[in-house]
Amino acid sequence: MRTAVTAATALTATGLLAIAPGATAFAAEPANSSGLSANVQPGAVPEMYKSGTGPRVRVNQVGYLTNGPKNATFTTGAEKGLPWQLKDAKGKVVASGTTTPQGPDAASAHSVHTIDFSKYATPGKGYKLVVDGETSHPFAIGDKLYDNLRQDALRFYYTQRSGIAIDDKLRPGYGRPAGHVSQGETGDLAVGCVNNGCDYKLNVKGGWYDAGDQGKYVVNGGISAFQLMNQFERSKTAKTAQAAKMGDGTLAIPESKNKVPDILDEARWEQEFLLSMQVPDGKQNAGMAHHKMHDESWTALPTLPHQDTKKRVLYPPSTAATLNLAATGAQAARVFTPYDKKFAEKNLAAAKKAWAAAKANPNMAASGDSGSGGGGYGDWSTQDEFYWAAAELYLTTGDKEYADYLQNSPLHKDAIWSDTGFDWGNVAQLGRLDLATVPSKLADRDRVRKSVVEGADKYLAMVQKNPWGMPYAVSDRYNWGSNAQILNNMVVLATGFDITGDVKYRDAVLQGMDYILGRNVLNRSYVTGFGTSYSVNQHSRWYAKQLDKKLPPPPVGTLAGGPNSGNEDDLAKKQLAGCVGQYCYLDDIMAFASNELTINWNAPLAWVTAFVADQKGASAPADQR
Ligand code: 9MR
């Protein structure tokens, strides 16, 4: 049981929960009437945000699909519903109604009301919502609001590339020399093992830089390349997918116009790197993949890739990395067959070799030791990676060995749809999603498809309960990369729609997008260049305009990690101490724990944005909405 400690709380006019010093607003354990499941602690709203974060009515600052759901969130101490008005660009009232009180919200330390203006379906720009004298940021209503972001979220990858000069003609303002191409120990052409732990050197040139650092990590590269290839593969099975939108020539990359879809060209840049991390034949642990490679010690900000003077080192092989290679190699074999048979075969051979090596070394854990020059990416449990790899190998080959493995894995039937969703360290979901969507003769394929719809139902319930309309159920504790976890839960919802055609899942995805683009307590679009008030100082060593005006900001279409209650960086420790949920975010280049950019976060942004753009105006029979 949980009990509300009523004496400790009071509502201010803005809806901020005023909490007596030392008191706990909600005692731990039971849910109160508003379903709160976590404590709201004193000091929950950091000092810097106390003066406000913009208009109290929060909207999707990019906009709403013509016939899709249209919701907003308003922070207020009012107990009863308040009148709202929707005004067009000329200030004319075009719709009105009453807000719906939702009570206190643990994720924002506010009391909130929601506004549903879904019935209004006239395309246009410059709409604003007005409630209680507060005017929202402007937004549009239309069918094509996501077409630019669909490309930009993917164009992000070209400027993350390692081992190649970035062509200023393709990305004006972002041209730069190639990074890590020297023959010496600061290049990636012949990299040895940390502490001289191996008797060979590998050419691991290429791939994408992970994030704001210049490390390259197989477990994070794996999920990222996978999600790009998966976005492509969805176009083969999903009724609404528009394959041409990710086709050849859509991304302005060096490979554009080579008769291969650009999204696959971009994924290949990473996949080639993943292949290069495999231990060569004849060496100890042959067939395993090195977990990661990065600088021996951290570089300062800013440091452009070609200016990095640190020694590059390989970290030992791990079972998790090896299975990432097996999974993406098998997937690449499938998707590249029509375009480059040789490359497809090379991938399948590497994938099978990796699978065999992982089976022979199932417990080669990645310690998470970062050696102080890169991220840890520790992974101690690999049952999920085994499941994912078996799924991909099965889907590509149909072989009994993998089918048997799947049927014997507890993860084949477990409820794997966790509250926080999947990420680089939790990948069973990737296998399950593909088994449900990629055609195969899997004996229990119908059951697997049903299990994905069950996952979608779970996230749908979260969207419906959450006053910000998104699928995340951690209450006031937000994880590192929370935005990507939310987007990954939206991938499950979208797949639920692809499988069933039921628009309730699609509409939940559309609502989740509202949160990412401004319907959150900070009134912030977490995507650079989209909306009115957006993140632009993400942590990066080369998009470091905040530190050096001569450098560019992150490119448009870059996702920020988002609120992170851990406050792991010094700036957050200082400015966000005690913060609650959605307030645990700073748009500052030094706030790496909440404001980094990464290849594994833009991947679900691209996937989900493509899904949303595919829905055009989101038309559907009224009785299904
Ligand atoms: O995304 C990673 C997150 O899940 C971890 O909690 C965090 C701490 O280990 O690291 C994150 O990954 C970072 C990586 O270690 C180094 N490159 C930047 C990544 C994003 O912040």
From TrEMBL:
The EC number of this protein is 3.2.1.4
Record Pfam families: CelD_N (PF02927), Glyco_hydro_9 (PF00759)
Record keywords, A-Z? Carbohydrate metabolism, Cellulose degradation, Glycosidase, Hydrolase, Polysaccharide degradation, Signal
Question: Which InterPro entries would you find in this protein's record?
Answer: 6-hairpin_glycosidase_sf, 6hp_glycosidase-like_sf, Cellulase_Ig-like, Glyco_hydro_9, Glyco_hydro_9_Asp/Glu_AS, Glyco_hydro_9_His_AS, Ig-like_fold, Ig_E-set
Does the record's keyword annotation contain ATP-binding? no
Q: Looking at the keywords, is Transport present? A: no
Reactions this protein catalyses: Endohydrolysis of (1->4)-beta-D-glucosidic linkages in cellulose, lichenin and cereal beta-D-glucans
Annotated active site residues, numbered on this chain, are H539, D587, E596
Q: Where is the Glycoside hydrolase family domain?
A: 146-608
Q: Which family does it belong to?
A: Belongs to the glycosyl hydrolase 9 (cellulase E) family.
Q: What is this protein called?
A: Endoglucanase
Q: Which organism is it from?
A: Planosporangium flavigriseum
